[in-house]
Amino acid sequence: MTPPILPSLPPAPHRVPHWFALSYLGALVVVSLYPFTEWEFNGQPWLDFLLYPLPYYRTAFDQGVNVLAYVPYGVALARMFRPAWLGVLAALGLGALTSLVIEIIQLYLPMRVASNLDVLCNAAGALAGGLLATLPWTVRLGRAMQRLRRRWLLADNSADYALMLVALWFLTQINPANPLFGVVVMPEGLPQPFESPIADPALFLFLLEAGGAMLNLTATLLFIASFLARRRDYAPVLGGFFLLAWLFKVAVAAAMLKPVAYFAWINPHVLAGLALGGVLTWLLCHTQRLVQSICALLLLGLAQLAAAQWPLVAADDDQRGLFRWAYHLTNINALSEFANRLWPWAALACVLLSISRQLRRERW
């Protein structure tokens, strides 16, 4: 009998809902309290705002965002508890408590306003997420997704964490003014002076911008490929992911950017980097899985190094003229910056876990 290519160990249990809830909580805190400056207590008792009349100025858009923002959080919280009714109560209670604590902290920020309506909308969103996670058709959908997961991904809990990170990766692209798969942002304002380590400053910027896109694309695709169970699935999965990322960027650009800035997220430098990244990914996908994991690890680190070498700074004012609703630019930038800083390190940890499991299988 021919031994399997990847002898499997008993799959370890995962805690994807716990880690997702923790990551999402971080995103909520960052968006709600960004930029974490000018702290000053106004003397208002902490809970008085709960008894105020509902805000006179409110829009359906803002209320809808406040509800929808807590739905994924409620889903994750509900999945952390058994039985189902306890999950729903936990989603409502912990979701409302999270919102209440954030609103109280906003009393210390002059740029923020504590709102009882926000607490109500957030709690409603968390409750909706909790109910959504426990509905019978949602449970059946979850079982179907588990069957697809067993078919497409490795029988290892590191693949479950990788799947969660792939979903969270789209938060890194939520700002439509930032380049697709880019790790650097070109300012829209006046030219900024900087010292180039090579004789041609324009070439230096091109190498960083195109090289960063190449490294980021290749690292992300190799990260996904290293968790796929079958090599023949590489082309449809990686191609489908890139297409989905492209469509996501197109959608957020159409929703948020002015028509004149619709393609602010793409330029010839980024296209050159993506083309090179596609070729490099194709070459590395022909290597062994362990080699792919190690390359993904190295490329993730190199992408962050390229971003750290970028000498130009893009301020909010540079991008404000690109957006239809400049009021929400601060929150969008906060969420994008949080995701871009957190995701590579979480992916590095996930890849290291996968590499350790692969080395353990080889010893077996």
TrEMBL record:
Keywords for the protein's UniProt record, in alphabetical order = Membrane, Transmembrane, Transmembrane helix
* Annotated Pfam families: VanZ
The answer to whether keyword Transcription regulation applies is no
Q: This protein is called what?
A: VanZ like protein
On whether DNA-binding is a keyword of this UniProt record, the answer is no
Membrane-spanning segments? 16-36, 84-105, 117-139, 160-182, 202-225, 237-256, 262-283, 290-312, 342-359
Query: Boundaries of each VanZ-like domain copy?
Result: 31-134
The organism encoding this protein is Rivihabitans pingtungensis
Q: Where is the signal peptide?
A: none
